[in-house]
Amino acid sequence: MKLGIVIPCFNEENNIIPLFQKLTSELVQYKKFILFIDDGSTDNTLNVLRTLTEQNKDVYYLSFSRNFGHQKALKAGYDHIDADCVVS
């Protein structure tokens, strides 16, 4: 089973790495894909996501040009992830 995890982000530069570490340690038994959606952050969120995706083959991101809200970010994530089960 492929588990897809969709995570909307808005100005979350300090939370992304701790969340990623906790998710990967807790879900080690699953084949998983993590998709972060940067919802127009104005801090360093996008750079953190770029670095994280360069270092991890199962981590991806989408980046919005401006803030559209977490509902639209979730919808974009659901539309782009290929998994048997998707959680947010």
Sequence-ordered SSE layout with sheet pairings:
Blueprint: E1 2-9, H1 16-26, E2 31-38, H2 45-55, E3 59-63, H3 70-80, E4 85-87
Parallel strand pairs: 1-2, 1-4, 2-3
Q: Please report the number of helical segments.
A: 3
Mean pLDDT: 95
Computed over alpha carbons, the radius of gyration is: 12 Å
**Judging from the principal axes of the Cα atoms, what is the shape?**
globular
**Multimeric state of these chains?**
single chain
* Helicity, as a percent range: 25-40%
Strand order of the largest sheet: 3-2-1-4
Number of strands: 4
**Uncertain ranges:** none
Structural class category = alpha/beta
List keywords for this structure.
four-stranded parallel sheet; 3 helices; alpha/beta; 88 residues
Describe the structure.
By secondary structure, this protein is of the alpha/beta class. Helix content is 38%, strand content 27%. The chain has three helices and four strands; from the N terminus they run E-H-E-H-E-H-E. The chain has helices at residues 16-26, 45-55, 70-80, and strands spanning 2-9, 31-38, 59-63, 85-87. Strands 3-2-1-4 form a four-stranded parallel β-sheet, with helices on both faces. The mean pLDDT is 95.
